[in-house]
């Protein structure tokens, strides 16, 4: 594997962890907005497709206590490098809040913007 691919793989894993840290925080909206490309689509179980300017907007739907968990773990993590400026991370999610548990598969596709930052193109979760 080319060294550049390994760097992309590591960058995407760091970004995915940042996404989940934001998703499970007390107020995820502002950070998710910063991580998202202008055209981003987020697909959560039992929720309309969220976009920055859609109805309901990402900001409206991601306000507290959206996805607020005490702990989360990503397993079976795979990074697929699409090209030098795009990649997808897939995984299984196990999260908990008190005695409540959340089990799903997840996938996030990232693209690198002209400023060099990786941004979410689409994020999907499917309950198991």
UniProtKB/TrEMBL annotation:
<protein>
    <recommendedName>
        <fullName>DUF4440 domain-containing protein</fullName>
    </recommendedName>
</protein>
<feature type="domain" description="DUF4440">
    <location>
        <begin position="16"/>
        <end position="120"/>
    </location>
</feature>
<dbReference type="InterPro" id="IPR032710">
    <property type="entry name" value="NTF2-like_dom_sf"/>
</dbReference>
<dbReference type="InterPro" id="IPR027843">
    <property type="entry name" value="DUF4440"/>
</dbReference>
<dbReference type="Pfam" id="PF14534">
    <property type="entry name" value="DUF4440"/>
</dbReference>
């Amino acid at each position: 594997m080319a060294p550049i691919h390994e760097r992309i793989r590591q960058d995407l894993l760091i970004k995915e962890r940042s996404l989940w840290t934001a998703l499970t925080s007390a107020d995820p909206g502002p950070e998710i907005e910063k991580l998202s490309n202008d055209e981003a689509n987020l697909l959560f179980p039992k929720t309309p497709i969220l976009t920055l300017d859609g109805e309901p907007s990402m900001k409206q739907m991601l306000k507290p206590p959206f996805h607020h968990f005490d702990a989360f773990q990503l397993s079976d993590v795979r990074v697929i490098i699409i090209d030098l400026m795009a990649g997808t991370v897939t995984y299984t999610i196990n999260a908990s809040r008190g005695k409540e548990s959340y089990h799903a598969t997840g996938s996030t596709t990232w693209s690198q913007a002209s400023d060099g930052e990786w941004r979410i193109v689409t994020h999907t979760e499917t309950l198991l």
